[in-house]
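Let us practice reading a record.
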Amino acid sequence: MASHDLAIPISEDTIRALRAGDSVRLSGTIVTARDVAHKYLTETFIRSDEIPIGERALHAELGRLLGGGVIYHCGPVVHQSEDGHWVFVTAGPTTSIREEIYEPEVIAHFGVRGVIGKGGMGRDTLEACRKYGAAYFHAVGGAAALAASSVKEVLTVYKSKAFGVPEALWVIRVEGFPAIVTMDSHGNSVHDQVRAASEEALRQMMCSGGI
């Protein structure tokens, strides 16, 4: 397995050089998005017949941020300092499978190159990674404060009043954010491999009378 330092935005060639099991350290601008944000992105920008006039500027900005960029499934705990600047107190990953109904379309529409979360995603997202050149990065759960230490700056936030702090689109600058490639652009998924191995171990135990 290889280790990579990746600067965001990430090229397709760089993503396709990654393999499931590789470790990465991400540096650059990423955008947090959970359930509400993914629903908003999909229904407002992707499945809509026409983007509302009042949302077009944000659509353009998100296109700039997410083209070659990274989405982070994260509901941060934040603090606002006296001078008005936001600081991430914790920034641990949330379970990604909830975004499976949206993620393939988001990857295709915005040109996303990386998705950070925990627990992996499904076959549709894996296929989108293969087709469009993207990867899933598994972040360590239970280390939210450690993840927050990689967040060097909160650049801005969108939809915090409408969605609430955890569900808002936070635009952050990270340095050396650690993660593991668990779904690559070649159709490989560590999550599928672990699941298959677990099912086989269970089958053997049942056949041997161990259960």
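A brief commentary: The chain is about 35% helix and 25% strand.
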